[in-house]
Amino acid sequence: MPLVYRTIFTVSPPCDAVELSLDTFSSWLAHKFGGRTVDVSRSGHHALDHHYTVKVVRHENPDENVRFLRLRTESVHERSGTVWQTVLTAVSDPGRASDRTVWIDMVAIPPGEEDVLDRIEVVRPKLVRLFLNTARCLDGAAVLTAAPVIVRGRDEQAVDALLAAIRDDSRRMAVIATGAPADLTVVGWRAAMGQVLKFACGMYSGYVLDRAAQERVAARLPEDFDIPVGGARTFRPGVRLTDPDDHRRHPRLSTRSMDAARTGGMIRPRVGRALAQSVREVILDAPLPGELRSLDALLNEEEADLSASPAVPVPCSGSTVVYRTESATAARRPAVPPPDPDRTAELTAEIKRRNARIAELEKEREHLIAELAETVEERDRCLEEARAARHEVAWLRDQLRGLGQYALAAARPPVVPSEQPPNDFEELLERMTDGVPFPYLCVTMDDSLDDVRELSGNRKERLWATKAWEALRALNDYVRYQLTHPGNGRTLHDYLREQPEGYATIPVKRMAAHESDTVQNRAKFSGKRVFRVPVEVHPDGEVPMFAHIKLDTEYGICPRLYYYPDLGPGRTNRIYIGYLGRHLPVHSTN
């Protein structure tokens, strides 16, 4: 569907995402329709007038303390014929990472086949502003507010919070930071920026810095990531401050450009449109988190059941519902025979099946987009490493020529030994267990090799085997790095984030240092993650392994590689591979 707006945020405890959504939605709807609202206590399909319908989907499991909510409004613009949908989804499930999440989409469906979405401008989403004004809404470490937050240099916590929001890898939306110009107070600049960013409400976290805050932040950020005075910097998700080229991903609106577009505290609308488009692309282009994709498929199925029943008219308070009818002179249409129950049931089942298929395809598409983005990122990193290596080789040859070593400078290096990844899991198992490529790894999963072979024959086998191979190389080189650099203090996460020269790594997002609290603290889940190790590692001959590498993120098999690092003085200084196979049970898949 043509998505034109999206926001995803979590609400802080003790606020309940579902109850907050019900109250906020009811208030918004009542204000929109002069006091009229719908029954949100149970699932239903309601018609407020001939152009506006509301669907309520409530999925509740009291035994597991699980509640999901889906509220969808649909209206038709009288002049343009565009169909507008606002879809609100709320999650209350203490066992999920997405607990306390609220997710709001706006969809515009133009009439006919003409693509006019580029000309559709989203008005300020009042429903989202109600949320932001009612509860503390968070995007990772960033706070979402209806207007930018003022950061003063004397407030150390506010400065630290801004820097944490910029660096936070879990953030999904943009952070816009701006420094107040010399001719305006920080309060006046906040009002000006709040006005120009009003159409991006809910899609960004905004911060306005006074002079002292600008100086303190500048001292803690690389120069290329500066926040211009009287300009603006848009920090996209995944900021890498140590990458000398990463600043190019984060648009900078210079002081000169902003000065040319403003008179005092009045900023021209084109600046707002450009900033809104920039932050809108960030959230719309990013794939949905896996848990929300699975939840979306579930709620789509339940919503399809509602679609098969006619909408119930909602009467005005103290008045009679009046329906628009055809004029008396209009030709009377022939009577429509009552629907056949069997045919209705058949069509309902078909709608449900097709909606489920659409959800599957959307999920697969979003997964492929995420996979492509990750692959492009890896490719760019490898190209940059190759460019740097070529530059270094050329420089070293020049140094040799300068020393008169012309023959050595012209010599060709020996052939690089092949590091071709295995084609399948059988080949991977052979290489893993022969001890040659990975001297610092120890495979202890002899009793669970069938779990590995279960992955064979899948259409993604070669991709999974390649990712497992890359993970094993990275783990082996991490031990090698620790032994050659004692006392460096680097965790595996640090090692993967900042690749040492000459050592293999993988993208840090593939590594998980632990499981969720639910998995680690519940025996039915943690017991599935106890794997063998030598008795010199632990007297019991087995340990819980919660650290793992994710070989895939798509819903389904999602292979995982579990390992146990036994590193440090007096230890074996090996990493033990205890499991390689399909995703082990968790709360949401139990």
The largest β sheet comes out as: 9 strands, mixed
Shape estimate: globular
What percentage of amino acids are in beta strands? 15-25%
Tell me the domain tally: 3
**Class derived from helix and strand content:** alpha+beta
The Cα radius of gyration reads 29 Å
Average pLDDT value?
85
Low-confidence stretches: 115-119, 318-333
Number of strands: 23
Query: How many DSSP helices?
Result: 16
Lateral strand order in the biggest sheet: 8-7-1-6-5-4-3-2-16
Protein architecture, described:
This protein has 590 residues and is an alpha+beta fold. The chain folds into three domains: 1-134; 136-290, Glutaredoxin (3-Layer(aba) Sandwich), CATH 3.40.30; 425-589, no CATH class. The chain has helices at residues 17-32, 126-134, 156-167, 186-196, 211-218, 255-260, 269-285, 290-307, 341-402, 406-410, 425-433, 449-453, 461-484, 492-497, 517-521, 523-526; strands spanning 3-11, 44-49, 52-61, 66-76, 83-92, 101-109, 137-139, 142-144, 149-151, 174-179, 204-209, 232-235, 252-253, 262-263, 266-267, 312-313, 441-443, 511-512, 530-532, 542-544, 548-550, 560-566, 574-581. The strands form five sheets. A nine-stranded mixed sheet has the order 8-7-1-6-5-4-3-2-16, with helices on both faces. Strands 9-11-10-12-13 form a five-stranded mixed sheet, sandwiched between helices. It has a five-stranded mixed sheet with strand order 17-23-22-21-18. A hairpin with a 6-residue loop joins β4 (66-76) and β5.
